[in-house]
What does this fold into?
Amino acid sequence: MRRTFYALLTVLCLAGCSDPSLNPLASDARILAFGDSLTYGTGAAPQHAYPAILEELTGIKVTNAGVPGELSAEGLMRLPRVLEEHKPHLVVLVHGGNDTLRNVSPSLTQANLVSMIQAIRKSGAEVMMLGVPGRNLTLSVPSYYEEVADRLEVPMDDAVLPRLMRDRSVKSDAVHFNKRGYRIMAAAVAELLEDSGAIL
It folds into this structure.
C-alpha cells in the first residue's frame, strides 16, 4: 500500500512539475512567427530578422508575420486571418511590447495574450512565446507573462529579450536589435523548441 502511494505521488509530482512540452515537428512543418517589430526585424535587413535565422537554424519553414507598432489588441484581431492563410503547425508568439510603451493596462495585455493563445490552439496549432520586457529600470519581463505561461502551460523564454535589451552592442536603436541581436534571439527560440521537444 505504501509503495503504491509513493508511486502515485511521484507520478503526480512529475505531471505537475514538468515543463510544458510540444509535439515533435515534421521536416515539412510550418512555423508562424507572430508579433510586432521584434518579429518583423526592424533595424536589420529581412534576411537577418529572427524568423529567417530560425528557419536557417532548424531547417523548418518559418513565416514572418510581424507588424511594427502593433498593439496586442490589434494583433488579436489580425491573428485569425493569418492563421487561416498560413495554417501553421506551431506559432512563436512575441507580443505586448508596444502595449507597455503606450501604457496599455497590463490586465488588458494579459487578456489579449490569453485570447491569442486560445485562438492559436483552436486552429490546431501549438504555441510557445517569449516574454517582452516592460518599462522598468531592470528591463524585466512583467509578471503576467509567466502567469499566462503557467496557467495555459505554454513553453516560454523570459530571459533572452531582457538580456538583449541591456546590451547596446546588439541593438540598432533604443528598442530594436541589429543582425547579431536577432541571431541571438533566433538561437534562443531554437533552443526553446529543442527543450520543449518540438525539434530533436
In short: The domain at 28-195 is CATH 3.40.50.1110 (Rossmann fold). The radius of gyration is 17 Å.
